[in-house]
Amino acid sequence: MKRATQIIQFRADEDTYARAQERVKDCGLLLPDVMRAALKSVADADVSPLADLINGVSSGSDYLNQAWLFQKCHELFEYRDGGLFRKSRKGMGEKGTPVYVRTREGEECVLIQGNHYPLKDIVWLMANGSIAGEVEYKNPHRVNMKHSIENLMVNAAPEKEVFLTRYLKGSEKIDVIKSKQRAFVFDTSKDENAKKVIEKLINTEKTVPLLLRGDDDWVASRTAIHAFKLTDNQYVVSIS
Question: What highest taxon heads this organism's lineage (predicted)?
Fold first, then answer.
């Protein structure tokens, strides 16, 4: 059954609209895609589809591309019988037909909004929601059902150790030693690496080692256990 669509229009504050466009324009997203995610979040009472996109836009990482791509692929395709089929007439092909596959540098790819993505990556992403490594074929010489999820696996990428560093003033050092200070405000306007680490803490909820330094070569370690964003470059990080 063909699913009906509807054009939705509403008024928005001009400055807010401009800032929203600015936030997404450098990240490979289109504002209508974000608005669709917002509408779905309201309809399903689940903010995760929208939160994935917004957090990804803030971090500017590959996490964003996967979150957006996961939603886009489920909008365009359905996986069945070991392959991908069109849900609509968007792009090349009729509804219900197999996706058009192109070969780029020996890799079978599918075109999505002007970019070529390996077909095996798309199948894995649609089934699992993320790709944490390199998608590979269990049997690369298989002819039938080569791109079926049963014939795919992920070779996990080694994770680089990341950590935060904080230089403490005298009073901060004393408060940390006495366990009176359990959080810090980080200004990352001049530290892009720290910003990425904190964004990863927010997005993955995985703790991060925190190295503390002070006068007289004083060094201590704690664990960053939680963080939230105050402004574009300011974060509050809670420690153990």
Answer: Bacteria
